Structure formats: C-alpha cells, structure tokens
Amino acid sequence: VLSTFLPNTTVMVHCYSVLSWLAQVAVVRPASCLEEMNMRQLAVLKIQDKLGAVIYSNNERNTSLLELFLKGPGRVVRLAVGEANGDDCWTRSLPPLINMTAQLLWPRCASPTFLKFLFRSCQHLVVQNYCRLLSSWCEWHPYVRQFLLGSALLNMGEEEKALDLFISAAGGVHQDGFLAEDILELQGMEPDDLIVQYFLKVISLLEQFACPDLVISLAETAIAKCPEDHKERATLSYILFSYHLKLGHNEDAYVAMMSNPDQCRRKDSLRQFLVTLFDRGELSELASYPYTDMIDEVESIIESRARSADLSVNNYYDFLYSFHVTRQNFRKAAQVMFERGHRLGTELCNLDGLKKQVQSYLSCINCLHLVNKKYQWLIKKLPTISASPKRSYDGEEKEQLKSLGFEVVELEQIRKQLVLSQARLKLTLTANANSQGCMPVSPGLTPAETVGFLTTANLYLLAVQICEEFNLPTVGIAEALATKAVRLSTAKAQEKSAAWQWLAENRPGGADIPSECAVTAAWNLLKHIVENEEKERETVLHRVVTTRLFTLGADLPPWLVAGYKKKDAAELIRLYHSQGKLEAASELAIEYLEAVMGKGGEYFGLESSLMANQRPAWVPWTVLDRLFLELADNVAIPALSTAMKRLEKTVDKYLNTVERVSRDMVARA
Length: 669
Hints:
Layout: H1 5-24, E1 26-27, H2 32-44, E2 63-64, H3 65-71, H4 75-81, H5 89-105, H6 113-120, H7 124-135, H8 142-155, H9 159-169, H10 177-183, H11 191-206, H12 212-225, H13 233-246, H14 250-258, H15 263-280, H16 283-288, H17 295-308, H18 316-326, H19 330-347, H20 351-368, E3 377-381, E4 384-386, E5 390-391, E6 397-398, E7 401-403, E8 406-410, H21 411-433, H22 447-456, H23 460-470, H24 475-489, H25 493-503, H26 518-533, H27 540-552, H28 558-578, H29 582-596, H30 621-633, H31 638-668
Antiparallel strand pairs: 1-2, 3-8, 4-7, 5-6
C-alpha cells in the first residue's frame, strides 16, 4: 500500500485536481496588441500554427480554459465522437467525449496538444498557475513547463526570471521530445545541433523585448555550450558582438569580434565596429586596439569610407593618419594626408577646404621628413581616360575606361603644392577681409594665375615666393609694384593711411617696416624685390621698372639708378636716350667714361680701369655715337649744347688716355 497504491493514488488525486481547476479557471480575451505580439513571437520562433487560431467568445461572460480549449485545438475530440442523434445521444456521446478530453488534459498525457495550446493561448497568468500546480509532483515534461513558464514571465515583464528558466529548459532539449520537436520544432539529429538551435530561437525571442543584457548573457551561455567547430558558433559570436557594441561595451565587443571563427563575419563585424565608434566619436579608443591580423582590413575599410564620404564632414582621413603615426608607419600616414590634400583641392573649393588642404600637406611633409631620404616619395594614382568606343552585343556603345597608371610624387613637389595652397588661402582671407568678394579658389587655378591674383591683391612677396617655387618670371610683380608706388606718391592722405594694411602683409622676413611713411615703405619694398630677385648678369627687372617709371612720368629712385649702373650702364643710357632724356643720358655717359679712366669705377661695378697693367675696359661706342647724333640735332637747346660739349671733351680725354696707355703697353711688351 505504502509503496504502490498510496503514491499512485496521490498522483491521481493531483491530476484530477488539475482537471477540476482547468474546468473552472476563467480566461479573459487578451488585448489586440498582445495577440499581435504573440503572433510575432511565433513567427520569430518559426513555429507553424497547425492547431488553428484560439477562438474567444463574443459574449460578456467569462470563458473557462477548458471551453476555450474545446473550441480551439480540442475540437478534434468532437470530430472524433461524431454527430449523435436521438433521445439517448448524450448517453452514447458524453462518455467518450469526456474520456478523450480528459486524456488530452491529463498532466501525464503523451500528446502535446494541450501544451501547444497553452503556448499559443496568450494566457500568461493561467500558464504560471498551471506550472505552479504541477511543479511539486509531476515529473512528466518538466523542461516544457519551464519553457512555457519562462515565456509567460517574459511577457509579464519578469525577464530575469524568464532567462533562468530558459537556461534550465535547455538541459531537456535532447531528452524531451515535446520541447524539441512539438513545441519549438527543432531540426537535427545531434544533441549539439538541437541545443544550438534552441539557444538561437530563445535569443530571437528575447530580441523582441528591450533586454539586450539578457541576450548577451544567453549568448555567452550558448557559446560556452557550443562546440568549437560548430557552424553556428560564428552566428552566436556575432550576436554577442552586436549587442555589446549596441550597449557601448567596446572592449567586450572587440573580444567577441576577434573570437569569431568566420573570417567573413569577422570582417563584417569589424566594419560595423569601426563605423559605430566613428559615429560616436570614440576615435582615440578605436585607434588603441591592436587588431592583430586584421590591420590590413582596418586600413582598407577606413580608406573606403574616407573616399566615399563627404570631405566637409570627413574625419576618416584624420583617424587613418593618427592610426599610422601611432604605429610609426610614417610613409602611410604621409600617403593618407597627401590623398586628402589632393582631394580637398579638387572637391572642396572653399575657405574651409583650403585650410584643411594646407594642414594636410603640412602633415604629409612632416611625416616624410621622419623617414629615410631615399623613401621620401609617394604614389599618386592618375585619373582614368575613356578608350575608343566599344559596342555591346545589342549594338549600344559602352564606356571604356583606361587607367593612366601611377605617378611618383617627391617631397619637393609636395612642398610646392603646400606653398601654392598657402598662397591661395592667404589670397582668400585677404579678399574676405577687404570685402572684395570671394577670390577664385577653384582647383584649376594654375601657379601663374595665382601670381596674378596675388599681385592684384597687393600680396607681392607671396607672389614672388610662388614665382621662385615654380620658376616663373617676376616681371609682372615688379611692374605692378612700381605702378602702385608711383600712384601712392600722389595719393591723398586717406589712401596713404589705408596702404599700411597691404604693406603690413609684405614685410621682408617678417621684420617691422623701418619707415614711418607709406610711400617710402612702398619704394623700399620695390627695392627689396628688384635687388633680391634680379639674377646675376641680368637686368630684366631693372629695365621693366625703369621703363614703367618713365611711362608714368616719375623720376628714377637713386637706388634703382645705382643698381642699374652696376648691372648695365650702357642699357640705362639707351633707356634715357629712348625716353628723350638726352641730358641725363649724356651725364651718365660722362660718368661712365670717367669710371673707365679710373675715377669712380666702383659705382659702375668695374673691376679695373684704363691702365697698362690691367685688363682693358669696354666702352659702348654705338650708344655714344647715337647719343652724339641726337645731341647734334638738338644743339640749339642750350642745356643739350652744353652737355654735348662736356661729352665731347670727356671722349677726347678718354681717347688721349687710350693712346697713352697703348704706348705704355707696347713699351712694357
């Protein structure tokens, strides 16, 4: 009795008590939103609704769980009994109906119909009570009841308790066929496949609720139980990574990403990791990770994002630069900054773009100075060009692109680009400050055009610097400054005061302007440019400035005459002659002849004078002959007549000296 009948009787009493409770417990139709949520959960779990929908009564009275079951999945009982007619229909139909219904509701039943009905009924409170009634004595299908209770608690807002129950139910996946085959419809023969499928379905269920921390916990548990070589381990690692990343657990996300065995998934995770941290602005943390064997992928992803993103808000280049500098890969850092500077010059043509371009070239040059001199060069990809037109099979022309290859860019070329960008930036800032409108900053602005705009903006020294870098003539700069100085000399006091603004931008060597007069400062600036930019044995700048001053009717400054006399006195005499300044030409000719004879030769740059023991000196007789002819035609003018007589006297003196020196040279020989 104690060992058999009493335990069996106790179980039977418990079962009948549960049946009585099922017949009496009332259910209420859930809200439509709860029904929709329940349908979504079933869809996420990929469970087919073979039992049909749960049908609720439209009347106001409460429906019992038993009635709801018989209207839904339990209707198979009525179909099995069939239609009964006659006076004794209930006598014949009721016993088998009750018997089959009791078998379906029996806690130790071998059919999963009622358990599946509970899972789909959306009666979460009833499910909790049902599981509580069976928890202390029923040993049948405990893992199914744990899963049902976990699902009910999850929908009731008790996610932590639900997670514990889901993990406990995982232990019966390969033991209880109800849970694996009937409730969750898992597929697979191996226990490992079943347990992994179970965790993936539960994770999908948890994702329908705002509990990412629980998803992480369950994913970690699943990874711990999943074999190393299982095909779904990569999926679990990716889920763990994505939720860590979503919650801002960057360290854990990085570990999960690097532990993913699937290379494709790992690369996708890396791209998501980089983009997310970029969007959050966590660049320093992003650059601190070692990435081990994924360095090339990191560079490739960031470079791809940098080239496709808008340059006005693009900080991918900055990250790549710091990334390479941190790893002391200075050539790659320089390549990144050079590419950014080149793109800024062609795609972002505004003041902000010019500032960033200058910074990019400066960073590039700094990095190249940190590498060996024989590696101070970069590769620039040339644009593509269209080849001869080709046609497809339907006769339509298709575009053919042909790459022009690559170009080696050396450090000196980059430095020239920097100087040009700085000049364009200064030009734009000056134009904006003077309210002259927006100066051209287009990518097609050549060095020669830049020099022209700089000269127009009174940035003469900067224009000279561009000419020096790109081997351009400085004639236009000197001519423009000479014109500016002459006009400033006759300008009003207000204009002279305003001239200090552009004179301050043209301080040689950055030193203070020594003069307190704007006119004097302008002439000193012209002197600095002419004397420093005139090449050896050339008089181009002296001639241009002199001609321009003659055209404007201005007198030649003493420094210009003194310099010209040392460079080429004969050419200055010709210029005086061509401008009709015969008296000045005669005076200069006399001075030159005196210098040749040994008086004041240092003012003409003569290294020797007319002596027997020294080198012979050259005299421009053609220039003097033309000057004599011009003076002879104007001898009626007293001043010119006097000048002609003085010149003739000096020439006679020179010829006598030449004759004497010649005799001395013959005697010495």
